[in-house]
Design a protein that fits this description.
234 residues, hypothetical protein yedk fold, single chain, alpha+beta
């Protein structure tokens, strides 16, 4: 699953990476949590990309209570095309949720050890996401969910699933609202290559969504060093 992530790079870095106009919609974040506002990329009708704020936790258009979004922060890539909560969005309301790292918790006896995972390059990337617009209340809600897939070899010792991190060459196909073939779209939702990623242990500060600072991504002493050293721990 994916329940916490970061976006602390500059607006210019996001703009350059995703070919969108610079935005200051969100400040630097080191501990983004469900129900909070997140930065996403959608494709407009004219084919151009736009950066928009969405609420993390998808509220289906048919829901009576928007609180259902608290349970729909993730969607399994294998079944999202057919699940009632996600199938409309999968068909035509796909997005990229902008991040530059994410956290996962590894069971460690009675405790869970948080890890921070990112691209080895340190560059921002996009989670494959779905978005919806809910209009049954006084105020419309635009919300999203992060798709997940089986873990790659880097993630397997930490957790059996991981968020779908789309390679740049697949982003245009994913965002194309005119693409409706579920089988073809599902082929894009694969584990990201482990060789292009790195992971290290971090402290317990990230356990509280109220704490949001650079201290959340500081490696524990035994995890410091280069990527090869970090992987040798497994």
């Amino acid at each position: 699953m994916c329940g916490r992530y970061t976006l602390h790079c500059s607006a210019a870095a996001v703009a350059n990476r995703f070919e969108v106009s610079p935005s200051s919609l969100l400040p630097q974040r080191y501990n983004i949590a469900p129900s909070q506002r997140v930065l996403a990329i959608r494709q407009r009708a004219n084919g151009k990309r736009e950066l928009v704020p969405l609420s993390w936790g998808l509220v289906p258009f048919w829901a009576d209570d928007p609180a259902i979004g608290n349970k729909l922060i993730n969607a399994r890539a294998e079944t999202a095309a057919t699940k009632p909560a996600f199938r409309r969005a999968f068909s035509s309301q796909r997005c990229l949720i902008v991040a530059d790292g994410f956290y996962e918790w590894q069971p460690d006896g009675r405790h869970k050890q948080p890890w921070y995972i990112q691209l080895a390059s340190g560059q921002p990337f996009g989670f494959a996401g779905l978005w919806e617009r809910w209009e049954k209340g006084d105020t419309p809600i635009q919300s999203c969910t992060v798709l997940t897939c089986p873990a790659n070899s880097l993630m397997q010792p930490i957790h059996n699933r991981m968020p779908v991190m789309l390679p740049a060459e697949h982003e245009t196909a994913w965002l194309d609202s005119n693409a409706h073939d579920a089988a073809e779209l599902s082929q894009l939702l694969k584990p990201f290559p482990a060789a292009a990623m790195t992971a290290y242990r971090v402290g317990s500060l990230v356990n509280s969504p109220r704490l949001d600072s650079a201290a959340c991504i500081q490696p524990l002493p035994e995890s410091s060093g280069n990527t090869a050293v970090q992987r040798s721990l497994w």
